[in-house]
Amino acid sequence: MSQESNTTPDNILVCDGLVKIYKTEDIEVMALQGLDLEIGRGELVAVIGKSGSGKSTLLNMIGGLEKPTAGRIYVDGNDLFAMEESELVRYRQTTVGFVWQNSGQNLFPYMTAVQNVEAPMFFMKGNKKERRQKAMNLLKLTGIDHKADSYPPQMSGGEQQRVAIAVALACDPKVLLADEPTGAVDSKTSNMIQDLFRKLNEELGITIIIVTHDISLANKVSRVIMVSDGKISTEKIMKDEYKKKLDELSAENLAQVESHEEYSVMDKAHRVQLSEELLEMAGIDSNKVKVEVKDGKIIISK
Ligand code: ADP
Ligand code: MG
């Protein structure tokens, strides 16, 4: 497999100027516009943005399902841009696990929960008994082992997602990717699934990247990346004091505590994107601004 030396061992994901252009007959859509991103091993990250901002495109690229038009992407030292299709197949089986919004996309309806978890293990070493044992352990880990012999259509949406997460973990992936995993369930179930991701991240140390337009999910993860127009605009990092309280406080009490600190992201050319809201608040309406340094701070004004 292609190895690259410029990825540090601590970063499991490096995106460098990622561009994705979708060409249809008469129109070109630039879904990613030079996106830079680094994610450390063992991080739990939420990628948030409006519909159409490029979240799924990014996730599919990390998952080796799509190739960038330009730019580079490294996952666990693999240069995905340079990989052959056969290497990508192997990569998808062993390095990443996917959870989709609709459990219908994740599960075979005519197989029981435990059979669903065993299915991807077909490519791995081990005998039938070992596979069954491992599948049962994963169902236990995701809290759904009591439904091991049920078929997906007999389960609720939340139960199906628990099975789907066990399926995604079947081949011990390094990275778990989830695209709107709580998009089709109610808010209580959504909360349960969010807690499950946190637990898996803590107990397995697995890197988890969750894509969502659900801002509420952001309160549960330590790093929130905001994507707009195919680029990363701002990042929110959870405050340490909030992290400590997360396990102690109920959801209502938590809502009253400032959870994250928001940062704007500066790209390699030192560009920072300013949101419409910020510009409006500062009364800036022209495309020329004054930039100066005062008291060690950079001030942008009319
Ligand atoms: P999100 O997941 O944030 O809603 P997507 O990554 O799905 O956004 O899409 C980003 C942009 O790329 C949108 O404008 C979308 O219409 C376009 N797009 C996504 N997939 C395709 C495709 N296969 N062909 C053409 N355009 C696409
Ligand atoms: Mg999407």
Q: What key attributes describe this structure?
A:
binds adenosine-5'-diphosphate; 13 strands; binds magnesium ion; globular; alpha/beta; 2 domains; 27% strand; 11 helices; 302 residues; disordered N terminus; Rossmann fold
Question: Topology, please?
Answer:
Elements: E1 11-23, E2 28-40, E3 44-48, H1 55-62, E4 70-75, E5 78-79, H2 85-94, E6 96-99, H3 103-106, H4 113-118, H5 128-141, H6 157-168, E7 175-179, H7 187-204, E8 207-212, H8 215-218, E9 223-228, E10 231-238, H9 240-245, H10 251-255, E11 260-264, H11 276-281, E12 290-294, E13 297-301
Parallel strand pairs: 3-8, 3-9, 6-7, 7-8
Antiparallel strand pairs: 1-2, 1-4, 4-5, 9-10, 10-11, 12-13
Helix pairs in contact: 5-6, 6-7
This protein binds adenosine-5'-diphosphate (ADP) and magnesium ion.
How do you describe this structure in short?
This protein has 302 residues and is α/β, with parallel strands linked by helices. 31% of the residues lie in helices and 27% in strands.
Structure description:
This protein is α/β, with parallel strands linked by helices and 302 residues long. The protein has 2 domains: 184 residues, Rossmann fold, CATH 3.40.50.300; 31 residues, no CATH class. The protein is 31% helix and 27% strand. It has 11 helices and 13 strands. It has a 7-stranded mixed beta sheet. The protein has a 4-stranded antiparallel beta sheet with strand order 2-1-4-5, with helices on one face. The radius of gyration is 21 Å and the shape is globular. It starts with 10 loop residues before the first strand and ends with a strand. 35% of the residues are buried. Bound molecules: adenosine-5'-diphosphate and magnesium ion. Adenosine-5'-diphosphate binds next to strand 2 and helix 1.
